[in-house]
Amino acid sequence: MGDSLDRSVPRERIEDLERPALDDRSYRIVTLPNKLEVLLIHDPNTDKSSAALDVNVGSFSDAEDMPGIAHAVEHLLFMGTKKYPEENNYNKYLTSHSGHSNAYTASTSTNYYFELASKHSTPTSSTSPSPNATQENLSITKEQSPLWGALDRFGQFFICPLFLEDTVDREIRAVDSENKKNLQADTWRLHQLNKNLSNPAHPYNHFSTGNWTTLHDEPLARGVQIREEFMKFHEQHYSANRMKLVVLGLENLDTLEEWVEEIFSEIPNKNLPRKRWDDVALYTEKELLIQTFARPVFESRTLEISFLYRDEEEMYESHPSRYLSHLIGHEGPGSILSYIKAKGWANGLGAGGSSLCPGSGLFNINVKLTEDGLKHYQEIVKIIFQYIALVREREPQKWIVDEQIGMSKVEFRFRQKSPPSRTTSGLAAIMQKPYERKQLLSAPAVIKTFDAELISQAMSYLRPDNFRFMLVSQEFPGDWDKKEKWYGTEYKTEKIPEDFLQEVKAAFEAKERPSELLLPHKNEFIPNRLEVEKKEIEQPLKAPKLIRNDDSVRLWWKKDDQYWVPKANVSIHFRTPMAHLTPRTAVMATLYRELVNDALVEYSYDADISGLVYEFSNHSTGLSVSVQGYNDKLHVLLEKVLVQIRDLDVHEDRFKIIHDRISRSFRNWDFGQPFHQVGTYSRWFRTDSSCMIEDLAKELEGVTAQDVQQFFPQVLAQCHIEILCHGNLYKEEALKITDLVEKTIKPRTLPPNQWPVKRCLILPSGSNFIYERQLRDPANINHCIEYTLYLGNRMDPVLRAKQLLIGQMTDEPVFNQLRTIEQLGYVVFSGPTAGITYAGYRILIQSEKDCRYLEGRIEHFLTSFEKTIDEMNEDDFEKHKGAVISKRQEKLKNLGQEGNRFWNHIFSDAYDFLQAETDVENIAPLTKDQMKEFFMHYISPSSPRRAKLSVHLIAQKQAKEPTLDEKKTKLSTVLTTICKAEEVVSNNDALKPRIDAISSEADISSAISTHLKDDLQLSTEQVDKIADEAMAALGLANAGLPGEVVPADETMTCTGMQGGHAKEPVLITDVHAWKAGLQMSAGVRPVRNLEEFMEDTAKL
Ligand SMILES: [Zn+2]
């Protein structure tokens, strides 16, 4: 132990935190001399370590004239530190240890976190089993632990950040691009509108993301030194006493404490106060009693009622607002939702209180309206007030709170682990709250006491003189006369008309109200039987057992042998081609699914709030039902769901509502984020049968309630049933559940030769296709490309190993080149992509630059990567292997994750339960030469044999083209960034006159080259590379694509396609003809004989 733990200096150590029953972590809270409060977590079984630091400053502290500054500082903090000046040093370190990092800026806090492998992983050492019970007694040295290096890099951000000059503009651009990504998203738009309509004196009113104008142009115009301003913000608001640090590792608490002390004691403490906003109201009289009508991008209809409420942070023993949200948000019989749903006015309802900051809070009620509901919104407001009056006229009901207390305790007691970075990031934020330290884990979740007084106070806020509402719809009222400043949302706002307000008051005060409105009845789903029979297990089973396999049913079962929670998962697949024969049957199956779910809302609500949920879904190979949660009453819910599935009575009125809801979701689909849409297109090209939304939308129009009523019994009439029972269930229970399924549905058997075969289309070797499509949202400015290379059949384990490894090897370089250096856009993804039998590699970019330009930059990157592989040393190569292996070996954190993994392998038809192990075995022996060969064959643009398809989604609106002056300004920062990445010393003094001399766009290229050649004396090869990257970052590089792409000759046969078109891209125009020309892969088959999974009969 180091001297720093000298016990002669008394330090308070809080270790006895209230914790879940099965939590095997140990906790310690200490405060360092600089007043940094730290929570240390030792987890003897973790394979990932993590740390998070939360600073009690956020966008509420933005300067009035520089909205977004807190967010920009969050971005810039990572740009180099005194100790580790290289700007991507931190991420490189994390990536080489299978790690990642992230950060977010909230209203009153900024949260930074990372996660990485707990141990150094080398392919040789990692194949031996890792759990090691004696680990906690050994102290781990800094060199042995990847965590130490990460903590040291992380800590420097708060000790001596450099805010590197040349990264400032670039990070402001990243913020700008992040904001542009959100511009067309309704959640952001409506949230901001609500903010803008609050008291201008409250910081909630402001715009928090920031953009190029607020963070760059305007400050510059005012003569502000931007970087200085960021540093000043940091200087003013960041202080050790405002920070909370959480570190989770394999190391014991003393070691962690010593490390944390050594690194984080250096953070300066400025003794800054915790900010509060007590004396400024969120809504003043001016902002209350207003009605706002807003027009969404999506075709959605919602009514949101907001009450000015209070901040309940200090009331965590009783959580009073949960009494109100429980009753108002209830969905069972007697509830508001049940009543307005029966009238055909609503599809959903939610309610809840939120503390916005110390000193302010809101209570919101949100209703999803039907078309009819929109017409009756005023009546809905009145009904809500009638229900509130019903709640308020009674004393706070102790039995209701007792139910909540009981359930919250059960949930906490059996809470399972979540991933390390979620744990640390979440707890660091929670530590900012005034919770008693021993209750840090439990306080946010558990209701401890019934406090009638506090509940009565809470109820007093829900009054007709203390609210306002917003109605969101594309149809009504149509005369929006204003535009919100930051997102451009059209809206109209005015005082609630006096006559309507009087009606609301009358409804609230009347003793008469609809007899349908009632308090909920006792919840029968609260679990009582919570026993788990725990046994000593040497090695948990890695696969479920096959305990029944006949013509009708295949049943898989595994009794939980490692998580010991009183929970279970039951998943059922009704296998039949009927649900997806044509777009029409697919649409009918979708309507059926939604109608069943709709019919179960009231019944399943009690189960839902008691930790028991079900899901019913349709897909290309049939229908599925799953039930998950406490096993005590699981069969009760399952039976009800099955009966509903069998006996659904399609009512005309509900059908109309559901039909409208689906039809809107289809219409909304192509207004979504382009990078969300693009995957659907890529998948469309991978299989024969998948259909696009537009095909489904066409079919939907003609389908009637009667059609669905006649259709669904046909789906269930003949099918094969496959079931997984997993968790706290004995074999007899699994068999019983299976009987229940069979007896309830009673399908005829479907012969195995009729089971749908899962397979994909094969992209031929030597092909190069482009599919172009214009995006429908006219206001969207972001293009999106998904560039995919087909690698082969995913069932081939060696190929899959190479696919995973190449994904890891290119991960950081893609991001660094295309996002950081070339600044193509905020959304840049790369890595393996998989279909059923499809193994691919893809790069996805969402950008204001056009798709052909992006295509060129991707090819340019891939070409340059050949050299990167050549130059990669063996050590780095082994690190990459280690990183993928450790990802594949990552432990499952809870019962749900294990159940999902089993079900995925069953549902895929491959039953490859040991896939992770197989992958590790196949990655370990891979050599650099093999990877180079793989890359040169399947990925390199120079390969005549690779198979490529890219989808280009083209925005209608053009982003504003930067002026020559803007490009010139950008050029100097761009060059500094690239020179640094290329390890070349830049020379801004020599560069400046060259930039000044540029008088037209045509001069830029030669100015760069001359500067690199004459001023920096670089070799021709370096000059070419840097010049090209600089031109790319300015959006001026040669796209490398012909202006006109040749349309595909759809009559071309497969062999025709193989004929060496690899160089010139071919445009897909007729998708059907194109698909018809492709061959199919072999279908998925079990990787092992299923008999191997049968239980050893001798043991029975
Ligand atoms: Zn950000």
From TrEMBL:
Residues 121-131 have a biased composition (Low complexity). Keywords: Hydrolase, Metal-binding, Metalloprotease, Protease, Zinc. GO terms for cellular component: cytosol; mitochondrion. Residues 227-404 form the Peptidase M16 C-terminal domain. It comes from the Eukaryota. Residues 119-138 are annotated as: Disordered. InterPro entries: Metalloenz_LuxS/M16, Pept_M16_N, Peptidase_M16, Peptidase_M16_C, Peptidase_M16_M, PqqF-like_C_4. GO terms for biological process: peptide catabolic process; proteolysis involved in protein catabolic process. Residues 412-698 form the Peptidase M16 middle/third domain. Residues 38-200 form the Peptidase M16 N-terminal domain. GO terms for molecular function: metal ion binding; metalloendopeptidase activity. Residues 805-903 form the Coenzyme PQQ synthesis protein F-like C-terminal lobe domain. Transmembrane segments: none annotated. Belongs to the peptidase M16 family. This is LuxS/MPP-like metallohydrolase.
